[in-house]
Recover the amino acids of this structure.
């Protein structure tokens, strides 16, 4: 595989430019009131991000519809970024996360602002932060649907394509995303420590529910807008959908590796966060499986310990490498990319297909 | 005005039957997983409720489109009930409410269930309840949009009508609803006690943002589906929209009166809840305006006091009557109904128009 990602990065950057431009022209901006809602709705969107989901949507669209239709799909690309964003805002409340993309999460930022402007009662301020974050996600959810609709109203995409796509997003995709999120929360409570009672397949399925499904939707939406017909059974559409679905799972597996090995700047959160949060990953599962009693005790005493020292984090990180947790995850990610690539065989060659191939390679080689 | 509501109640009951039937046939039911999500998404929908918003949507539709088009609008009626429902689920988290329609709120019910099935840690159980409630609202939000879309996909309503309506719902309506909710939360924190710095107009505007706007949308959506054209400027469409908007504000004013004078069964929550929560209403505002120093002290020492005694609640309730708070609110509700009715002048007579007139009367005479 080609490891020169220059053309991919340049496409990601064009996508970012296009969707930020679309956001900046939205009639929604004028009804984002009061200021705390306005600022919160825009905050994650304005932070540096890779914009992978909208880019994949545009690439899939280009594969079947060419250059001109990619222009038509820009509101949908903005829509999938917004959809992803509201799930992040609500997940951050659920996970009690304090940082996202190197800056405070919405609930955290608004809680801090409330302390300065609204109340000296820190419990009230915390509730206020949570309230604003819930409502921020709700508005972004609405804006996401509006953006998809704009493909029909402003870009002359067939209204039936948009209606069917939004319906699919609002039933199948949201249902599975929420299912994955709840399983994750329940695992976190029930198996706070040793991951007993879960197997590797279940962990990977949870990754797919939480991440793969939205990449799958990116491929599907781009493909249908590309052919401008609501033909969900079209073989090329299905091929692009399967391809992006598998790559999405690989993305999350690689994300879990970077969550252990990445540095603070790359992660946007402190080193060791995933370990201190006790995040349930294939890395942890595989390492525990291969650990002796002493190693197991070291891992279990650090995992999920919010106050674990930097030395303890280092030790567990080393164990994850030695015990094969990192390697097994890397291997799985590669398996998913290998499963994904043959689906592209029936897609005609184009610069967009080459971008998708490059993106697949980036999924398992990326360091950020 | 006619005060025999038999035909109105029979229409509300038909609406309830139609939308529950629509829900029961939804393909979404099979993807509501796990059980906690399935049960939470359905819980408020299955509790006894008046179904005013979907009924108003169907009446407005019937006014301009007649009997046959009312059938076509049933998925949209289900959609507005779902939209209202997700806002209730999220509002209940924000207001820390424990009861809704006579039974535990979603976050409360799921927190209690978690204590039995997931964890003995009551903080973790409470967080779990909150998490499930956030995600429940998110799913209902999606299902709401899906239902509107079904009007086009299953009922041959013009796709452009549905796209424009959903766009309006997801920008204008959601933006104003959230604005009203945040103002309410901010008022609650900043003016915990004496309502200084707020005037009557601001309170009524907040009622409109939180309640009137969704009734306005019910009128608009029904009217546009009735004419089956996305003609937002049509004078009859605008008339129905204005009519339902004003009646919606009257509905909320009457709701505030019932919140003080209603009994537990009618309220679905304990007597005095609105006083103990310190709810900011025209009743409180007007009463404080007319109170002498002693009366003011009595009101302020009870309002917002979660542990206020039954005697204190009785005393404040009496003061709200004596000081004109109840009467002023009743008067305002009547003013809004009087503003609403002339808009119906340009709507041709029909059983649906008669139902809307009856509904307007019910808004200010209802006891539940």
């Amino acid at each position: 595989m080609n490891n020169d990602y220059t053309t991919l990065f340049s496409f990601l950057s064009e996508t970012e430019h296009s969707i930020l431009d679309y956001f900046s022209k939205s009639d929604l901006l004028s009804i984002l009131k009061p200021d705390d809602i306005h600022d919160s709705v825009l905050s994650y969107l304005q932070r540096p991000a890779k914009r992978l989901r909208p880019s994949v949507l545009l690439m899939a669209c280009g594969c079947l519809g060419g250059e001109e239709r990619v222009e038509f799909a820009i509101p949908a690309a903005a829509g999938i970024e917004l959809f992803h964003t509201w799930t992040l805002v609500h997940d951050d409340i659920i996970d009690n996360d304090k940082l996202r993309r190197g800056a405070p999460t919405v609930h955290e930022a608004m809680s801090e602002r409330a302390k300065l402007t609204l109340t000296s009662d820190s419990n009230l301020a915390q509730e206020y932060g949570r309230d604003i974050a819930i409502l921020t996600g709700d508005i972004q959810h609405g804006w996401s649907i509006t953006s998809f609709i704009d493909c029909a109203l402003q870009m002359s995409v067939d209204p039936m394509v948009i209606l069917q796509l939004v319906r699919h997003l609002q039933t199948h995709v949201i249902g599975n995303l929420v299912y994955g999120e709840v399983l994750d929360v329940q695992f976190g409570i029930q198996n706070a420590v040793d991951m007993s009672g879960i197997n590797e397949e279940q962990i990977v399925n949870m990754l797919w529910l939480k991440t793969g499904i939205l990449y799958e939707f990116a491929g599907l939406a781009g493909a249908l807008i590309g052919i401008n017909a609501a033909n969900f059974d079209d073989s090329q559409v299905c091929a692009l959908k399967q391809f992006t679905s598998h790559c999405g799972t690989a993305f999350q597996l690689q994300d879990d590796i970077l969550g252990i090995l990445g540095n603070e700047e790359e992660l946007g959160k402190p080193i060791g966060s995933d370990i201190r949060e006790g995040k349930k990953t294939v890395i942890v599962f595989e390492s525990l499986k291969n650990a002796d009693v002493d190693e197991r005790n070291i891992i279990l005493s650090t995992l999920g310990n919010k106050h674990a020292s930097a030395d303890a984090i280092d030790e567990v990180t080393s164990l994850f490498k030695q015990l094969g947790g990192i390697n097994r995850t890397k291997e799985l990610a590669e398996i998913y990319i290998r499963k994904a690539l043959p689906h592209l065989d029936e897609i005609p060659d184009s610069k967009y297909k080459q971008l998708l191939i490059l993106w697949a390679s980036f999924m398992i080689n990326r360091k950020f």
Chain B has one domain: 6-365. The mean pLDDT of chain B is 94. Chain B touches chain A through 59 residues (CB under 8 Å).
